[in-house]
Every structure is written in structure tokens, then in C-alpha cells.
Write a structure and sequence with these properties.
The chain is mostly helical. The chain has helices at residues 3-28, 32-39, 41-45, 50-53, 61-90, 96-139, 148-165, 168-177, 183-188, 190-204, 210-242; strands spanning 54-55, 146-147. Strands 1-2 form a two-stranded parallel ribbon.
């Protein structure tokens, strides 16, 4: 194929990816009230009534919340189809082994992102909200309500941060699968990796308490250990195939 033929294929892939996002937005935007209700459940977990505790002070407050929840939800819905569209452009240049590795990694990527979001939603958010309210009480600052737009922005930031952070071990696994790094190197750098994970968890988590930090750091450390074993298993298989 010529350069312009490749360019035409890329334009077609980008168009299909954009179309998938638009369709996802058309599906997600009408569901914004239900998504908003789901995002307010952590308040219920700490004994706060969202209908009383969340308030909007902007004329466009409801629209801002609908756009935030709709856009993020549309991205989550459309992302697999967007990746398939872009994969149609990349796959012809990959070997059969590389295609299989990419497809498996996409499945793991979706699972890890969902696991990160679920962990944040079930444990991190209620704990963070309790700690934030405790700090206000400790400082003597009364909190009668949260601004709804600020609350949704905070919730979406935490969920997205956890989901994206959970993708890091997958990158390590892929580097090991393609031979860029070895299991021995991963074992040797374990202490450095744990320090990096702790720093990353401290940056990502919105609170400063050790409990919230370990909620993220512990699963990431376990995933790093799993990546060492999966890399080792890949090396053993390659060694047997070479004989």
C-alpha cells in the first residue's frame, strides 16, 4: 500500500472510532439521571441523603452534571468499539502472535479497568468521603452540603484514576511478553517498584490517610508479583519451543 492508501485507512479507522463514541454518547446521555443516582450511592453509605446533601448553585449545574456523566459513560461504552476500529488499521502490520497478544491484552485491560473502578467505588469513595467530613469537623468547619458539580467531579476523578492506574501492571506484562524485560529484572527491581507504587498511590488517592493509600497500593503490588510469574511462564514456554 502507498502512503496515501495508509492515510485513507487511518482516516476511515478514526471516523469509525468517532462514530462509535457518538453512538455511545447517544446511549449514555439519556441515562445520565440513572448514572448520577449510581454515583451518589457512596453518600448513602456514609449516612447522607444525596437529595439533601447535594445542591446546585449554578443555572447550568444540571447540564454540567449531565455532560460529565454522559461523556465519561459514553467513553466507557464506546471504548471497546473504538479500539476495534483502530485495531483494524494496526492489525495488518502485526504477526499472528502479536495479534493474539494484543487481543488478550485488550481483554485484560477492560478487566483491570473495571476492577480498579469497582475497588474505588466500593471501598475508596466511602472511606474518602468519611475522612473529608472528619477533617472538616476537626477543623471546626461545618458542612451542611456539598456542591453537586464538585462532588461529581471528585467522584469521576477518583474512579478514572483508579481504573487507569490498574492498567500499569498490564504494561509490565506486555513488556515481559515481548522480551523487553525479563522476570529476573522484575524480581531485582521489586523494591524499587514497591516504592514507586507507594508514591503513585499517594499521588492518586485524594486523601492523605494510610488506609486509602494501601487500598490502591496493595492490589498494585499483588499485580506486580503476578506480572513477574506470568513473565517467567512466558520465558519457560519460549525456551521449550526453542528446543
Amino acid at each position: 500500500m502507498t502512503f496515501f492508501e495508509h492515510l485513507a485507512d487511518l482516516r476511515r479507522a478514526l471516523f469509525h472510532a468517532a462514530l462509535a463514541f457518538v453512538i455511545g454518547l447517544a446511549v449514555a446521555f439519556p441515562l445520565s439521571p440513572f448514572i448520577y443516582h449510581w454515583l451518589t450511592r457512596p453518600l448513602v453509605e456514609i449516612g447522607k441523603d444525596p437529595k439533601v446533601f447535594l445542591r446546585s448553585f449554578e443555572v447550568t449545574g444540571g447540564l454540567q452534571i449531565a455532560m460529565s456523566t454522559g461523556l465519561w459513560s459514553a467513553l466507557v461504552i464506546a471504548l471497546p468499539f473504538m479500539l476495534i476500529a483502530l485495531g483494524g488499521f494496526v492489525f495488518p502490520g502485526l504477526t499472528k502472535r502479536e495479534r493474539r497478544a494484543v487481543l488478550v491484552s485488550l481483554v485484560y485491560a477492560v478487566g483491570l479497568f473495571a476492577a480498579g473502578v469497582a475497588l474505588a467505588y466500593a471501598y475508596m469513595l466511602p472511606a474518602s468521603l468519611r475522612i473529608m467530613l472528619w477533617f472538616n469537623d476537626w477543623m471546626g468547619v461545618p458542612v451542611e452540603f456539598f456542591r453537586a458539580t464538585d462532588y461529581i467531579r471528585f467522584i469521576l476523578l477518583v474512579l478514572a484514576s483508579f481504573g487507569v492506574t490498574f492498567e500499569l501492571p498490564l504494561g509490565v506484562m506486555l513488556l515481559g511478553h515481548f522480551g523487553v524485560i525479563t522476570s529476573a529484572q522484575l524480581r531485582d527491581k521489586r523494591r524499587h517498584a514497591i516504592v514507586f507504587i507507594m508514591i503513585l498511590a499517594a499521588v492518586v488517592t485524594p486523601t492523605t490517610d494510610p488506609f486509602s493509600l494501601f487500598i490502591l497500593a496493595l492490589p498494585l503490588t499483588l499485580l506486580y508479583e503476578i506480572s513477574i510469574w506470568t513473565t517467567w511462564a512466558t520465558e519457560r514456554r519460549k525456551s521449550r519451543d526453542a528446543k
